[in-house]
Structures are given as C-alpha cells and as structure tokens.
Design goal:
This protein has 16 helices and no strands. It is mainly α. The protein folds into two domains: about 190 residues, Up-down Bundle (Growth Hormone, Chain: A); about 190 residues, MFS general substrate transporter like domains (Growth Hormone, Chain: A, Up-down Bundle), CATH 1.20.1250.20. It is globular. The two termini are about 20 Å apart. About 50% of the residues are buried.
Length: about 400
Amino acid sequence: MADTITAIQPSVTRKTLRIAVGILFFMAGLCFSSWASRIATIQQTMGLTDAALGAVLFSLPVGLMLSLPFSGWVITKIGSKKLLLSAILVYGGCLISLGLAQNTFQLIICLVCFGFSSNAVNISVNTQAVAAEGMYDKPIMASFHGLWSMAGFTGAGIGTVMIANRIDPFRHFILVLVILAVGVAAASRYLYDDAGAPKNNEAASVSLREKLRLIVPLLTLGSIAFCSMICEGAMFDWSVVYFKKVVDAPIALQGAGFTAFMFTMAGGRFIADWFAHRFGLKRTLQVSGSLTASGLLVAIIFPYFYTAMAGFLLVGAGVSSVVPMVYSAAGRSKTMSAGVALAAVSTIGFIGFLVGPPVIGFIAGLATLRASFAFIAVMGISVVVLSTRAKL
C-alpha cells in the first residue's frame, strides 16, 4: 500500500497522509459537536417541548440512513478524496443552515441534510484512514477516532463559551465553518486520491458460493458493530437518566456518568491501536466487550454514585475501540472496495445505534431502567461471543 500511494502521489508520505486524515477527523467531530452544543438553545428559541424535540432529532438518523447507499455507490465512482472534500464542506454548510432555521419544518429538512452529509463524511474519511493505516505496519485507526472524540470536547467547550456570551447559533456556526474551511484547505493536498487506483477484482474470479463465504466476515464485523453501537447509543441517550432516576445523583452531578463514559471512550481510542498491535484484533474485541459488560453490571448491581461512575468509566473504555477496529478490518476486505465494505458494515452497525435507545425505553417501561441496562450488558457479552467465534 505504501509503495502504491507514493508511486501515484510522491508528495503524499505516510506522515503527511496521517496528519491530513487526522485533521479531517477532528473537523468532522468539531462540526457535529458544535451542533450538539446548541440543541438546547435551538429548542428554547423554537419553543419545542421535549417530545417535539425528540421527534425533530429523529431527522438526523433518517438523513444518515438515506446517505448509506448513496455514499457507498458514489465513492466507487469518484473516490474517497473527492467525496470527502465535497461532503465535509457541505456538512459545514448544513451546520450553518441549522443556525438559520426559523421553524420546525425548516429544522427537520436541515437535519436530514446534515445527517446525509455527515454519513458521507464518515464513510469517506474512514476510507482515507484505511489507506493511511496501510502505510504502517501497525494499527492506527483508533487514534483517528480519538481525534474525533477530542473534537467533541473542543466543540462542547466552544459552545459553552458562545452560550455564556449570548452569541446566537448562526454566528457560532459561521466561526466553526471558517475553522473547517482552514482545516480542509490545509489537508486537501495531502489526501490519497484513490479515484484512479486499481480496483479490487479478486472476487470477480470466484464462484458465487465462494463469494458468499468471503462476505460472511463482513456480516460478522457488522454484527459486532451492531451490538457495540447499541451500547454506545444507549449510553448517549440514557446515562444521564440513569444517574437521575436510579443513582439518584444531585442535579449538578447527573451528567457525571456521561462525562466519565465520554472521557474513557476518548482516551481508550489512543491506546487501542497499541493494544491491537500487541494482542491482535480478536483479543482487543474480546477485552472491549468484557469491559462493557463488566462496567454495566457494576453500575446495575451497585447503583451508587461512585460505583456507577466506575462502571461507566469501564463502559467507555469498552466501546472505545470496537468501531475503529471493525472499520479497520472492513477496510481490508478482499471481496469489495474499502468504501463499499465500510458502507456495508456501518449500515449494520448504525441500525444498532438507532434501535438501542428506543429498546432501552421499551424494556424500562415493561420492567425497570436497571433491567434495560442489563440488556446492554448482554450486548457487551455478545461482542465477546461473536469475536471469539469469528475468523478475524
């Protein structure tokens, strides 16, 4: 891979490509977290109830799902570099439109477009990350996702400053777009242009039965991502509620569990590459699922502030490496291009992210919130079982 890239683009070294891809991961994370930091402001401005806001926010995953087949198709036509550079600028433009929305209908349309461009960025930037990882003799995918998580903290910090100074979302998002444009300009020259790269035709010469056999690992990877992203989605939506209703934390500390989860999820991604290089993909996924399940069981069995905090720290560490490792493995598929393989695996995984929160609510309604968190623990155990049985 390294020789191929440098032969096509002599100016793109593994260091410059890694920096360029890292910049764009950070920009993508900054864009998303900037929107997330102003949701409450937009809710108040538009006078939306919590139920109405929940319905409006469902527009984002709708846009993501609509984008999945499109992104997988277009990346094979124009390559991940062109898709990434165009999609991330559209992503920033959609962020601006969210600041300009004047009513609920406009906000819904803007969120669908925001989700659509977000997924196009996700698939293309991860395809670039696979190319960068191919130039190294060790895994580096998780470190890119760590930069995305760091951008989340940065975006939240900027949003806090903007809110404190009563700066409206539109002007806030203009600043983010400027930062985004500078980052894109700095990185664009050093991305890998795979539009003219040789296509992977290995699967063309094998029988249908053999093709199906070779696709099974992708389905397994997608299933692992599905289980882990159920956990991740549930933690995003329900961790604060758990600390409020089960842990009975004071109002000022009800977000502490989510913060603990996010902290170790970000930090874990910077050591996941080292761990995977030393112990292998299968062991990394096994440990990740075990940490997720163990952390949730601690929080369920001992629903007190400090024990729940410890449990949520373990959950964050557990989910941190699963998606980056799965994406890395999918990008090395021998049956289809990296972009198409990533689109397929991310489709299966993202379904888990969508269904997780409502399933937790359904189980909590039938039983208790602690029982619903036990279901998430089962998903962590499923990651262990699937990764143990899979040929990775």
